[in-house]
Amino acid sequence: MSLKIVVLIKQVPDITRVKFDAERGRIDRSSAEAEINPFDLNALEAAVQVKEKLGGTVVAISMGPQNAAVALRDALARGADEAILLEDNKFAGADTLATSYTLAGAIKKLGNFDIIFCGEKTVDGDTGQVGAEVAEFLQVPHLYYVSKVKEVKEDKIVVVSEMEEASYVVECEFPVLVSVTKDVNKPRLPTLREKLKAMKAEIKIWHAENLTDIINLSNVGYAGSPTVVSKVVVPKEKGREGKVFKEINEGIKVVLEELAKKGLI
Amino acid sequence: MPYRKIMILAEQRGGKIHPISFELLGKGREIANKLGAELSAVILGNNIAREDLMELIYYGADKVYSYNHPVFEYPDVIQYKHNIVKLIQEERPEIFLFGATNFGRSLAPRVAASVKTGLTADCIDLQVDENEELIQIRPAFVGNILAHIKTKTRPIMSTIRYNVMKKNERNSTREGMIVEMKTEIAETKTPRLIGKEGEKKINITDAKIVVAGGRGLGSQEGFKLLKELADLLGGVVGASRVAVDEGWIGKEHQVGFSGNTVKPRLYIACGISGAPQHLAGMKDSEIIVAINSDPSAPIHRIADYSIIGDLYQVVPLMIKEIKAIRGE
Ligand SMILES: Cc1cc2nc3c(=O)[nH]c(=O)nc-3n(C[C@H](O)[C@H](O)[C@H](O)COP(=O)(O)OP(=O)(O)OC[C@H]3O[C@@H](n4cnc5c(N)ncnc54)[C@H](O)[C@@H]3O)c2cc1C
Ligand SMILES: Cc1cc2nc3c(=O)[nH]c(=O)nc-3n(C[C@H](O)[C@H](O)[C@H](O)COP(=O)(O)OP(=O)(O)OC[C@H]3O[C@@H](n4cnc5c(N)ncnc54)[C@H](O)[C@@H]3O)c2cc1C
């Protein structure tokens, strides 16, 4: 038994540090360190847990600039066996359709797989679309908003999928793509030894030319992207009353008066 | 020239039409009027009552494409996609809107990838500019920015956040057409529903008042106090991620980037610091009251009223005062 597991990893800026320029409507990516998208740490942990239980290999794939190798190295330290970076100027400026097309192309190049894990969404682009689009390009089913992996066997997986009204238990045979929420597990921290080992590990780099047997280059990057971000606005915080009360009795009095006026109590 | 068409997905759950559908019709109608287009609702279900289909017309649809088949009982993404893709290929709509529910956000990308068109996620507004181009506005970077997005391919597809678009007044004299569609079954492996692990009893996204607690509660007990206040106000209890992670309260109560997005008339945050991931889920609330002992907590920056103090003093007093006002 040897499962072939793929994890999709995106490198994102540390969102608690990024600076947003309200005047010019710009995101200053250099203001924050890059890290693995927090949801992808859960995807990676889910993959490693399946491997530990049933045996197999975990391949981490990321599309991004050269320095996204840092995120992949981190993924290796956390239990991935192989890492592939899809890096090329031609891939830059991709929307979710072009990103998914490229990722799906790389997965096809790898050959057969059993499970692909990805995160529910990212903290930057934040669309939550890449997982389902990759599944569509690969023509495999996908399980979404997965908050729990209940069971994995040689040929199928059983998960809990969150919907607004209920949590459903869903089963699916391989191959399948599984998109996980932050509740699915608690990602482990790499040990120093694992970190050192990952420092020396190889990160494969695939450029556009390595994929031309599988993908059509007019569908990748900015050229292959049907959506365009035409403007970015950093919204001014909504004008709020901003009344601060250090004396609690007075605070309660004013708040309740205001709420009464609005018919809220 | 082919007639311009706009479509929306009318989502149903257990045979009942999800309220997002009427919001999509509200926005869809506005755009259709501007562009001189026809607006239709697409519904896939099992024995949806005819009077329910008529509601879609009363709220703005000119046409309803109705698919009736047992496969749609459980929201099966692949069967939905299969039929919607076929409809898009036949009818060639210019715009197709989906609700940004968990199901809509899982279905729409598969449809978009299948017809190879652009999809904009979780929009909070759609505008038609002077060149008749559709501008899709959506938050990104954990709610820190708003991106304006245009789509070069057709149909332009977007998912729309629940509770932000206005539905139209119901007009039971509106006329429209119901088109019975033939369901085609995709002969492919699809995931199987084998059970349910708990219904979600609270619906925090629809609540008009939310009383939320965070790490500052210190224990599960604290939520009893918040529940008392929430019950008194006719609201529901919300929570920060930390409170959920501590096991003090269920996940369905969580507000924020990895939980629910809420937009109540009143949000009372007790013992919540106001991390960006929490704010992303509640900062559009109409009135925000923060109760926090730390005057420098970021939550105060977006609050209308901040009471600096121990929530275990403030909340019981508040409950007492409300009862007094009501003469209880
Ligand atoms: C402000 C802004 C708004 C945008 N809005 C849209 C939009 O509405 N529609 C649109 O099509 N594009 C949009 N984009 C472009 C989009 O962000 C990029 O295509 C991005 O590369 C992938 O989308 P995401 O970050 O939303 O990923 P998501 O779909 O949120 O990611 C889900 C999962 O897919 C995997 N994944 C995502 N990207 C990669 C990657 N590069 N490598 C490996 N795995 C990955 C990860 O496991 C991740 O957890 C926007 C970009 C910006 C900057
Ligand atoms: C990817 C990602 C997703 C996330 N998603 C979410 C999300 O969806 N929702 C969410 O909430 N968080 C989310 N978080 C976590 C978030 O970053 C914060 O850690 C969390 O919101 C903090 O919760 P808190 O405000 O309850 O706790 P703290 O930040 O510890 O704040 C507790 C507050 O209580 C006050 N306090 C203490 N005692 C009292 C008292 N007796 N009376 C009054 N005040 C008191 C303190 O002054 C303090 O301000 C996410 C994080 C990541 C990385």
Model description:
The complex is a heterodimer of chains A (265) and B (328). Chain A is built from six helices and 15 strands. Chain A is α/β, with parallel strands linked by helices and 265 residues long. Chain A has one domain: Rossmann fold (3-Layer(aba) Sandwich). In chain A, strands 11-10-9-12-8-1-6-7-13 form a nine-stranded mixed sheet, sandwiched between helices. Chain A has a two-stranded antiparallel sheet with strand order 2-5. In chain A, β3 and β4 (26-28) form a beta hairpin. Chain B is α/β, with parallel strands linked by helices. Chain B folds into two domains: 5-181, HUPs (Rossmann fold); 204-326, TPP-binding domain (Rossmann fold). In chain B, 28% of the residues lie in helices and 28% in strands. Chain B has helices spanning 20-35, 50-58, 77-91, 102-115, 221-233, 241-245, 276-279, 311-325; strands spanning 5-9, 12-13, 16-17, 38-45, 63-68, 95-99, 119-123, 125-128, 134-140, 145-151, 156-160, 177-181, 192-199, 209-213, 236-239, 266-270, 287-292, 305-308. In chain B, β9 (134-140) and β10 form a beta hairpin. The longest helix of chain B has 16 residues, at 20-35. The radius of gyration of chain B is 22 Å and the shape is elongated. The mean pLDDT of chain B is 96. The chains are: A alpha/beta (265), B alpha/beta (328). The interface between A and B is large, with 87 and 89 residues. The structure holds flavin-adenine dinucleotide (FAD) (2 copies). One flavin-adenine dinucleotide (FAD) sits between chains B (214-216, 240-243, 254-259, 271-273, 275, 277-278, 281, 291-294, 297, 310-312) and A (38, 123, 182).
